[in-house]
Amino acid sequence: MVVKSELKLIKSLQQKKCRNEHGLFVVEGKKTVEEVVNSKIKLHKLLAVDPEGFVEGVEVERITNRELSQISSLKNPNGYLGVFHIPEQAEQLLSDWILVLDGVQDPGNLGTIIRLCDWFGLTDIVCSLDTVDCYNPKVLQATMGSITRVNIQYRVLDSFLNSTKLPVYGTFMDGDSVNDSKLPKKGIMVMGNEGKGVSNSVAKLCTYKLAIPQYGGETTESLNVASATAILLHEIRK
Amino acid sequence: MVVKSELKLIKSLQQKKCRNEHGLFVVEGKKTVEEVVNSKIKLHKLLAVDPEGFVEGVEVERITNRELSQISSLKNPNGYLGVFHIPEQAEQLLSDWILVLDGVQDPGNLGTIIRLCDWFGLTDIVCSLDTVDCYNPKVLQATMGSITRVNIQYRVLDSFLNSTKLPVYGTFMDGDSVNDSKLPKKGIMVMGNEGKGVSNSVAKLCTYKLAIPQYGGETTESLNVASATAILLHEIRK
Question: Going from the N-terminus, what domains does chain A have, and what CATH number goes with each?
Answer without folding.
Answer: 4-85 (3.30.1330.30), 97-237 (3.40.1280.10)
